[in-house]
Design brief:
Helix content of chain A is 63%, strand content 6%. Classes of the chains: A mainly alpha, B alpha/beta.
């Protein structure tokens, strides 16, 4: 064990003491959150060129009002009030030829859009103000190159539907103001009441809906990040030892089991350091924002235990692959199946957060490679998980981790001394099974 | 225990390739034993079996009186060829690391003494990747001997060293023997092998072809070499009756006689061909013996194997 500790200490220092580690500590959250934040930061970077839009109003009843609305928007909604800087494009509305809308006309206008002379054209059917008898909505059409993400389509959708609704209500003799008032009601989501330690009652939190999704996601991404930061260096470290013949020197001093134990211990210690750094940061941030009660401290011990096991499981697999190949390049194809196991929870997280106690969530979070990430996801999504589930998950993860470490130690022992061609996945499995 | 290493009929195969074939070898305690042989002849495989990193397919490997199979042995230390160091670690840290792995408790004093001895003190806090080849070779050497092992196995310890560093390392190796360690090293430098080794061992195509002191090996190959110096030679030396082979090093040349040839007759012929500045009857050098065994016209392999 003393030798394993000597190796663990070196491994830990090599992992934590490198510049790359400090850089990745700083960069990882940016990478993880950047995807969510970047679009918001860039949201004012819009195209502010004027947009010309033709309206084919067969009903003849909406064009004038629509034009007024557009003019009002151009007047007040396209410039920043303080700097008078243009923040949104002005719309130039034109009326199409009167008479029925033919496919030829649609084609002609489409060509104009293609040439860039028009941005879009809108078709309003003649009977748009008649409430449909069959409850099927009357369809107005917004034609443009790409309507899915079009801000313009969204704006016209709001304005036109509102306009049609108001006219229909007025036609039926109903005051639209009354209807709007009647709509002013909401159902709010809140957390649960709890009994405090001193016997009092702790009121429930007015949890924001977004937060109840983001917190579990954050926990899961956090674990994903730690696995990534721990497992990859393990692969590289073993590869360095192999290609630089350090392995032979090590094997002259310690048994393969001691070497592997030492390296994994150092790696887990490194991953705990990462977790400690981020958790301290998150704690400080929550405290600064007076949001300490939002952090579910009770699942933190579970998180730590699962994180240690997840790092052991994946690092040992990465390590055995590092031992089996001679170059990083050769490792890629062998790593693919393992990456899939690590990444898969990221594809199903939303389904699981929606129904954390549903049968899909329950069973999926009992498949060993996914247990650490998904169990933490579920536990931070709801407190209604029966306690036997995380315990069973723990037992299963322990068993899987033990199996991984055992198989990895076999591959490690054989791989460390094998030079030349990298083995295929099937050969790796044979090494792992037959030793 | 009189022998540090005993190999008995050891065979190692990789697939169908026989890397080491029924090898017998005895390395007495306290000797410096040189391994020579062309690339791919089984040297490193043999060294690795002595280190018990590889296990033989058949035969027995006994190291420091023990038959055990594990390579982890604090009494044995190994220097792999050219590499074996973590590039990002500082020199003192990596030496302490290897020392502690071998069970050394207070490594600091020992490490600093060695660094001073090999003139590396100024580099103690530098990273390994900043060292020159010669320096990292010395660091690696210290890493190997820091724990004062009983058996030191060095794979090409002198490759790529300048004469000054070479002398320093050679002295260090010889001082290991004085302290009672057994040293086995492999080398491609025949000069080093001749000057440093108590016993020389040559392996070729997995089989032992030479094993003994330099004297006994040279005796085995006899006095069949003539060294001459001639600036001008009119005619082909190979045509002289009794000359089997000519190795030319510019004005210096080595002639190998056919068995039973008369050196005096050859001298007469040489004088007829030009002024002879130097003429010496000599035993073949280790280099020459190596080439005779492993060279392209390796006529004497069978002979050597069955010797």
């Amino acid at each position: 064990m003393r030798k394993a500790l000597v190796i663990a200490r070196r491994e830990y220092t090599a992992m934590v003491g490198s510049k790359a580690f400090l850089v990745s500590i700083a960069i990882m959250p940016v990478l993880m959150l950047g995807g969510a934040i970047a679009p918001q930061l860039l949201s004012d970077r819009v195209d502010t060129n004027e947009k010309r839009i033709t309206v084919l109003d067969e009903s003849g009843a909406l064009f004038d009002s629509l034009k007024q609305a557009v003019d009002a928007r151009n007047e007040h909604g396209t410039h920043d009030a303080e700097s008078n800087k243009r923040i949104a494009p002005e719309y130039r509305l034109g009326s199409g030829p009167s008479g029925p809308v033919t496919d030829e006309l649609r084609l002609d206008l489409s060509d104009q859009v293609r040439k860039g002379e028009l941005y879009a054209f809108i078709e309003i059917p003649a009977d748009v103000l008649q409430p449909p008898a069959d409850q099927q909505p009357t369809v107005m059409t917004f034609y443009a190159e790409n309507t899915a993400l079009s801000e313009e389509k969204r704006w016209f959708d709001d304005v036109l539907t509102n306009m049609v609704q108001t006219r229909r209500l007025q036609a039926a003799g109903i005051d639209p103001g009354v209807v709007n008032q009647s709509k002013a009601v909401a159902l709010q989501g809140r957390g649960l009441f709890e009994r405090t330690a001193d016997g009092g009652v702790k009121k429930s939190q007015s949890r924001e809906e977004v937060f109840s999704i983001l917190l579990p996601l954050g926990f899961m991404m956090f674990m994903f990040m730690i696995i990534m930061m721990a497992a990859q260096p393990m692969l590289e470290s073993v590869l360095e030892e192999k290609t630089n013949r350090i392995a032979e020197v090590l094997l002259g001093s310690a048994t393969p089991l001691q070497i592997m134990t030492g390296k994994l211990l150092g790696n887990v210690a490194g991953s705990l350091t990462v977790a400690a750094i981020y958790l301290t940061g998150a704690y400080g941030l929550a405290r600064y924002n007076n949001a300490l009660d939002m952090i579910p401290l009770d699942i933190l011990p579970w998180f730590i235990v699962y994180q240690v096991l997840a790092v052991l499981m994946f690092s040992s697999l990465f390590m055995s692959i590092g031992a089996a190949v001679n170059q990083l390049k050769e490792a890629q194809s062998l790593l693919l199946p393992i990456w899939i196991l690590i990444v898969l929870p990221l594809f199903v997280w939303l389904n699981i957060v929606r129904e954390p106690t549903g049968s899909f969530a329950t069973w999926f979070s009992m498949i060993p490679p996914f247990i650490p990430m998904l169990m933490c996801l579920r536990m931070s999504a709801t407190s209604a998980i029966p306690v036997w589930q995380p315990i069973l998950g723990l037992v299963l993860t322990l068993a899987a981790t033990g199996l991984c470490v055992f198989a990895a130690s076999r591959v490690f022992r054989i791989g460390m001394l094998t030079q030349g061609r990298a083995p295929k996945l099937s050969e790796l499995l044979r090494w792992a099974i037959s030793g | 225990m009189n022998n540090a290493v005993e190999l008995n009929q050891v065979t190692k195969r990789f697939g169908k390739h026989v890397a080491v074939d029924e090898l017998d070898l005895v390395v007495p305690v306290g000797t410096v034993y040189g391994f020579i042989g062309p690339n791919g002849s089984g040297k490193t495989t043999t060294l690795r079996m002595i280190l018990r990193i590889f296990h033989p397919d058949s035969g027995r490997v006994r190291v420091l009186g023990e038959d055990r199979m594990s390579s982890a042995d604090d009494r044995v230390s190994y220097l792999p060829e050219e590499r074996g160091l973590y590039k990002k670690m500082k020199v003192r840290d990596i030496l302490c690391f290897y020392g502690q792995l071998k069970g050394l408790r207070n490594c600091r004093g020992e490490v600093d003494a060695w660094l001073e001895r090999l003139e590396l003190t100024a580099w103690a806090d530098k990273r390994v990747e900043t060292l020159s080849k010669g320096m990292s070779q010395k660091v690696q050497f210290i890493a190997t001997v820091i724990s004062q092992p009983e058996l030191v196995v060095l794979d090409e310890p002198f490759s790529g060293l300048d004469p000054v560093n070479m002398e320093a390392l050679k002295d260090a190796v010889l001082s290991l023997r004085e302290k009672g360690s057994t040293v086995i090293f492999s080398t491609h430098d025949m000069d080093v092998a001749e000057r440093m080794c108590d016993t020389i061992f040559m392996i070729f195509r997995g089989k032992k072809v030479l094993d003994g002191t330099l004297n006994s090996i040279q005796d085995q190959y006899g006095n069949d070499t003539i060294r001459i110096r001639m600036e001008r030679v009119n005619g082909a030396l190979e045509r002289i009756p009794g000359v089997m082979r000519v190795n030319s090093y510019g004005p210096y040349k080595e002639l190998r006689m056919t068995p039973g040839a008369d050196p005096q007759m050859i001298l007469h012929q040489l004088i007829d061909m030009g002024p002879v500045e130097h003429f010496e009857m000599a035993r073949p050098s280790l280099h020459d013996i190596f080439v005779r065994i492993a060279g392209p016209e390796s006529l004497e392999v069978e002979e050597a194997i069955h010797a």
